[in-house]
Design goal:
2,3-Dihydroxybiphenyl 1,2-Dioxygenase, domain 1, 133 residues, four-stranded mixed sheet, 2 helices, 35% strand, alpha/beta
Length: 133
């Protein structure tokens, strides 16, 4: 089969330990919109207009720190930004709000693309990438 049977991402579901803080990361710091809540689960759904992220509250918290060589599961989630200026703005905004930065904006591969990596409040690695065009 040469033709993909899927057509993009519908949503990304993340289990988080700090539901409200994780939602605020997306809405307050990145300008996303809260789409809805499900208080019974509980969950908060956020979107940038193209991508939906479902944040599910962990019932029991057994967080294991990131280790790409030992842990099976999500390595990171990556979001594209429209300009190098947007990438730098995100970096500055996250720094000013105490978000842990793994690395500041830097060249990706041979460039001209640039990217940065941080940890959202529940500890999930989040990458922001500017494709350099």
């Amino acid at each position: 089969m040469n033709t993909p049977i899927t057509s993009g991402t519908h949503h990304i579901g993340l289990t988080v330990s700090k539901l409200e803080a994780s939602a605020q990361f997306f809405t307050s710091l990145l300008g996303w919109k809260e789409v809805r809540r499900n208080d019974e689960y509980p969950a908060i759904y956020v979107s940038d207009g193209k991508t939906m992220v479902t944040l599910w509250a962990a019932k029991e918290q057994a967080f294991v720190g990131f280790d790409r060589k030992r842990n099976v599961g999500l390595h990171h989630v990556a979001f594209q930004v429209g300009s190098e200026s947007d990438l730098n703005t995100i970096h500055d905004r996250l720094l000013s709000h105490g978000i842990e930065i793994e690395f500041a904006p830097e060249q990706l591969g041979q460039g001209p693309a640039r990217h940065m990596m941080c940890y959202e409040p529940s500890g999930i690695r989040v990458e922001f990438t500017w494709p350099g065009n």
